[in-house]
Write the structure tokens for this entry.
Amino acid sequence: MSSHAHWRPALVLIVLALAGTDSSVAAAQSNKTVIAETIKRDVARLVAGLNAHDAVTTTAYDAPNVISMECGSPSTVGIEADRDGFSTGFAHDPHWHVHLIDEAVDVASSGDLAVYRGIYNEDNGSAGVVTTHKTNFLAEFKRQSDGSMKIVWYSVSNMGAPHPKK
């Protein structure tokens, strides 16, 4: 038997293993892309709920023990506390709306965790004057026992002083 006969089966196995690795990497990346797009779509629905002043829709993607960290307010824990906070805010400010500027989603390789990062213009009213300011929205999504991705914590912070809306 020639020396070439010994290494050919090993070479075939290596090539097959590498091909399998490439397809599993591609499948994992495809899955991460699907998760990121799903999260972006869910956040768009959350924002639509906020802009409609609908507290139930705004909190539809909260995990049961969601931690809300909003600038200017004490942190809260749980969907009901988050929903109450939105209901109070909606009642207080009929001009409250947000508009997406930019967003990104980083998905863990496991697909079980993701971080959403969005920048928004936020409009608020005070004494009949509508102002706007840039706002950061950061949220961690975690896979739940039913397979869905829900927000386990989020933080909203202003990036500058409000100014009259143009």
Summary: Residues 3-51 form the longest helix (49 residues). The mean pLDDT is 86. The domain at 3-164 is CATH 3.10.450.50 (Nuclear Transport Factor 2; Chain: A,). The beta strands are 62-70, 76-77, 97-107, 113-126, 129-143, 149-158, 163-164.
